[in-house]
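Bug report

Summary: structure tokens for Microcin C transport system permease protein differ between web form and batch submission.
Environment: batch mode, default settings.
Steps: 1) Submit the sequence below via batch. 2) Compare with the web form result.

Sequence submitted:
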Amino acid sequence: MGAYILRRLLLVIPTLLGIMIINFTLTQFVPGGPIEQILANLEGQGDVFEGISGGGGDADLGQGSDSDYVGGRGLPPEFIAELEREFGFDKPPLERFLNMMWNYMRFDFGESYFRSISVLDLVLEKMPVSITLGLWSTLIAYMISIPLGIKKAVKDGTPFDTWTSGAIIVGYAIPGFLFAILLIVLFAGGSYFRLFPLRGLTSANFEELSLIGKVLDYFWHITLPVLASTISAFATLTLLTKNSFLDEIKKQYVITARAKGLSERKVLYGHVFRNAMLIVISGFPALFIGVFFGGSLIIETLFSLDGLGRLGFEAAVARDYPVVFGTLFAFSLIGLVVGILTDLTYVLIDPRIDFEARN
């Protein structure tokens, strides 16, 4: 197993490098870079994208002449050149990429162009929202899906299985943002009840509350956004659990266990559960990281939460490249490591799995 893990870790390097090369190369052809944004604002043109006509697609990375910049015609060339030096766009793309990767290897993600704060500090600042939505959504999804999936497998073909399947399909079909709007209208003062707050993770007087008061205040604020984030997450997991149990229940060892006189509960949870849960539990790291870092922009916007979803969107729109590439590098690295952890989870759950023997 050690050799397999070492090979996987070594594969992380070229994979991560390929991701960064592709995305860095694509930005060379994207118009409306940070310098264009600044120049357009100085010229009073508002949104820089309104002035992009066609040519000069690489101007945002300092590759074109001064006149390539939208709004640059009425400003001194010395000023534009100074902006290029400040943002580092006076250097060739290859040199910029190599410098960026060298810094990232030392986990130096630089500073945001427009926020005067390091990328790492910016991500940590937004992290509480992502932790809240990711952690609780994942836990609730598992707490609902596993018992429900087992129940559906045991009662396969019964009315219970039929109507729960219908409810799951309806829940899966409803977009999260639409369900969020429904929750706001019903329970957040939209038209009916005002039971839950509509802004932030905590109240303004949070620091003045007791420990129990802080806990209750936190859960009071996160109830609606977590529900909105969870509505479609448990559907796939429930059906996966059900199908996994159905597949195991039909196997010979289950028939043998029943023939020996074991109770249905002992057969189900003593023999079937471990094998059936292999694919479900082993996917927990990937599911958690996916929900954790894939912050929902619309959910965060509707509930006035400033998390990683909004951070990523705003950075992409503003062409805040340190934030875009820094978070891309960090999250890609975490995703690749989680893939290795998923394989290790398989082995921990079922020692019969041997990735070394497979090779």
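Above is the batch result. After comparison, the two runs are identical; trailing whitespace caused the diff. Residues 139 and 186 are 25 Å apart (CA to CA). The first helix runs from residue 2 to 27.
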